[in-house]
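Entry 14. Two folds queued back to back today. First construct below, sequence then structure tokens.
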Amino acid sequence: MQEDKDQELQETVGGENISETTESVNETSEKSPEITTEKTDSDATDDTVSIENEIASSEPAPEDEKGENDDDSVLNEIDESNAEDAEDQDNHHRHDIPILDYHAMSMENLVGELQRLIKNEKVQAIKKHVDGIKYEFDLKFQEFIEEKKEDFISNGGNEIDFRYNSVTKRQFNEVYSEYREKRNQYYKSLENSLKENLSNRLAIIEELKSLVNVEEDINTTYKHFKEVQEKWRNAGPIPRNNYNDVWRTYHHHIEIFYDFLHINRELRDLDFKHNLEEKIKLVERAEALEKEEDLNKAFRELQTLHKIWKEDVGPVDKEHREEIWERFSNATKVLHQRRQDYYKDLDKIHEQNLEKKKEIINSIKGISENIATSHRALQQQIKQIEELRDAFFKAGKVPQKVNEQTWAEFKEAVRSFNRNKNAYYKNLKKEQQTNLDKKRELLNLAISLKDSEDTDTATSEMKRIQSEWKKIGHVPRKYSDKIWKEFKEACNHYFDRLHASKNEAHKDEIENFEKKNECLERLKAFELTGKREADLATIKAFIEEWKTYGRVPFNKKNINQKFNKILDAIFKKLDVDRQESELLRYGNKIQHLANADNDRAIANERSFIRKKIEESKNEVRQLENNLQFFSNASEDNPLVQDVIKRVEKNKESLETWKAKLKKLNIMQHNLEKGENEAEETDPTEEE
């Protein structure tokens, strides 16, 4: 990910930020207190101090020191980073481990990433990663726990009594403790080795110093010098705090020795020539890095070149010393300038991200200031807040100087919404408790009426309290099912008694059912003779007979549907035309409306039919208008034929609806006259 590379580059080489190495040197080190106080060892301290004084008093300045005298920050950063890597050869792997966008991760994902790093990576290479994860986790957990505390207080709890057991926090602490333990074990085991290597290197420097004054053949001395160099190469890592001073001291005495070799210029010049050739190669490699697109890769390569320059390649003659170092330093500065330009662009991106986050914060504030007044709408707002939170975390990094402020504003906006949300639900709970009290009153009333013998009064009252129940809003969830069940049982108990008493009082309905059932069985057994008129007359006789049997018990009324299904099947076999079949079926509905004697149902049916009549008229009118567009087209045209068919079909439908309206009007007229049936009413009931 490019953003991962940007993060790694920024934290590795700095810009305005403090480099990783600088932080590790200046801070009270968690890594190894013993190592940071290494100089309390008396031998090491005395030697180092004497060496530093010796360098300060010498006239020629080493090449590395010249770079520092130029106050070039990038050279200091490279020195510090190489010092850190020199302490452990595996430490440089930290550059290869991407630093993810921890800000956008949930607490659970942060725990998972920390576990992965500890399991798969070297503990000394993940400090920056672990620090970033811990920082983001602590921020998110603080926000989370504050929300939980607000919920607790808003529900009537006392702040002093608040406790919250977070499984995620416990898991994080366990994993982080594992990291600290591994880290401490690593640096404890490393400490003695670093101390011993430091002592060895200081002894090697003393041995190197002694070569200048030895009285022996120059060739023998030169051979001894090469052996000292080999021992130096194999002396192992030393504490990072001592690295640069020790290396500068070593190179200082290397140069003194080469000056001493003026007695044997051939040996010295041969070495100078070889070293110059090697340094030219390093310079050319450094200059080529200007074209490397990946700044991370380029800087790591530059670090390696500086390390080789310092550790593996000796000095060159004074004639070329300044020139070759100038080339190498300039190549380094070119890359540094590229980095500075890059960070200018990166700062612009961070400013854009800041604007996005400000917009998100304002959106959250807007929702918080206009909190919904219904549960459904508030749930929608909660969803919007979650989406805005996700967008905030995914918006990318902002300038470091406003990072804390931006996070604080975001957190406060979310907390404000949560406070308003909690206030709403607190009021809602009060309202639901009031509703619960009202429903309990209705429940008690229903229970008192369920065995009443005064059916006229009780029925009216039971219907009233059922209607009243529907008007009352929600009650607390834990009571909702229970109180509804009790109310429903009381109402069902009463109406079951009422229906049972009606069944007793209307035995004729049961008789009607038995007669209809017998008629139904005969209709099932009926077989067509093949003579359409005779068969149709027989079917009409069945219908007339069915009509004479009147109402059946409420729970048996599905017998009418069974009768209609059999009729539909027979009509289909008799090839009864569509309109006739429609009117026969509609006659059944007319009979149903007449028996119900419900003015509202009749009015609704009339309104429905009139609407269908108007729709059919409009459709016919529209189709006839469409035909005018085909005035010059032949009647054989498929489009014309289709429109004509649709016109005829809608005209037939129009006539059918008019006939239905006529039957309905006749039925209502007869009802108003007190008659039980209309002369033209067909007894079949529509499904």
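Second construct, same run, same settings:
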Amino acid sequence: MQTLDFLTIIVFTLIVMIAGLSFGKQGGDMKSFFAAGGAVPWSISGLSLFMSFFSAGTFVVWGSIAYEWGLVAITIQMAMCISGFLIGAYLAARWKETGALTVAAYLTQRFGKKTQRYYTFIFLVLSLGYTGAFLYPVAKIVNVVTGFDIYYSILFLGAMIMIYTAVGGLWAVVVTDVLQFVILTAAVLIVLPLSLDKAGGVNQFIQDAPATFFHVFNGEYTPWFILAFIGYNTIFIGGNWAYVQRYTSVKDRTSAKKVGYLFGFLYLISPLIWMLPPMIYRVVNPELSGLETEGAYLRMCMDVLPVGMLGLMLGGMIFATASSVNTSLNLAAAVLTNDIYHAIFPDSDQVALMRVARIATLLFGLGTIGVAFMVPLAGGIVEVVLSIGAVTGGALYGPAIWGLFSRRQTGQSILVITGLSLLINLYFKFVSPWLFSFSLDRATEMLLGVFLPLVLLGAYEIFALKRNRESKQYQLYVNRKKPTAKELAASLTSGEIQNNFGIKVLGWAFVSIGTLLFLLGFGASAGRYYMFAMGALILMMGWTMVRSAQKRSDSHTKNKTEQYIHD
């Protein structure tokens, strides 16, 4: 990396930080901080969901698989589009209907406080594992490209993410997510043709690739693994407490459905574009092995991107991968504040709750940094991400999703099923290999983790049906007090004001990024016209958003003035 690359990273970081911190004074209540006012545009929420999930491992986890195994990395990622479409069709609107701020609040309403406490404890412990695993790839990117010590990278990046998430809340998260989506899409469309040129063209790349490189299924990634992966992601994306925020923070059922459909559509078209650079790098440099393969994506970018553009790509990768971290931080703070602290101190006012929310974000962030330090000791990021998902995903999120549809499940039934599923999965993951030298392969491990809790939930459903049992907790949930039409209208009006501010911030951020990209094009030795085109496109998009937001703001002010005069 050269001086211009480092300067570009600094400028990009400042743009992202300013965008995130600008929401510090937008709304001073729980709904603003944890649900972005409850009326986020579905397109922004959908892109944020995509980036929160996409960025967790695209560059490191899936990049490593693409380098080692080839086309199967695209197969795995495309399978997630099926999960997105299923969630859009069946789950997203159900979550919106609950009216709950968090999944923990829904569990309290549907199954009681005891059940909610149990799941909250498990969720917070596992979230430290997930979030730490997501912070590690961010530091890995910095380590590979700059040579900066990975542990210092974890400390610096973790602190930076904590600050803007603690200040800006969910709007800071979703706006920075969308910003990463645009810049990384532009960047990869520049990387891809330059990578193919580096490999000698498409035909040369195909000719020099390993014999099994273009198999749809390869190695341990079998059809059974893909089937389990679809099931796992449907449950994980449809029930993970952090991702459920994306369905509940939009204005209505239809918008919630669109969030799921947009996620599915993006995973239908994006894997081919994103996974080709690390695949091509296998031909350019086939010498990587072990944990070195986690840096394949970055090494390809370092080889082909012009000066300055590498810094912009790296900045985009860092913050895109960090979006999974800030999403989890915001959600964990919501649970700690809304469902633990507020339950203990119900008379707390909004000022006290907001103070606790920001402190909770910082404390959970410190725990995340500690876990990220331990990822290399656990066998690398691929092993950590897939193992945690296989063991816990179905057991933790499946029962809550099932409860959205069931009249018969009780707090006791789902607690027993979650506990039993976790024990069986942990036995085969850790105890059986140690005592009997017997371990499950990747596909079987994930199949067991996904479908065991579903089988147990189905068995209880049949048991209760035959005895004509309906949960008393379900009746209480159905008859709960719901917001009035007037309260909903007031909430949507407040949300629209925040939306307008968010779109304006996003627009100015695009203008800044487009200008930066356009200027970098003048000094580029390769890909100059790609950079000019992308810069101009982002500039126009940003300016259009700023103008649109300003018109809506003026219209809202005019209507408010007329109403005041009329009254």
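Quick look at the second one. The chain has a mean pLDDT of 80. The CA atoms of residues 232 and 424 lie 17 Å apart.
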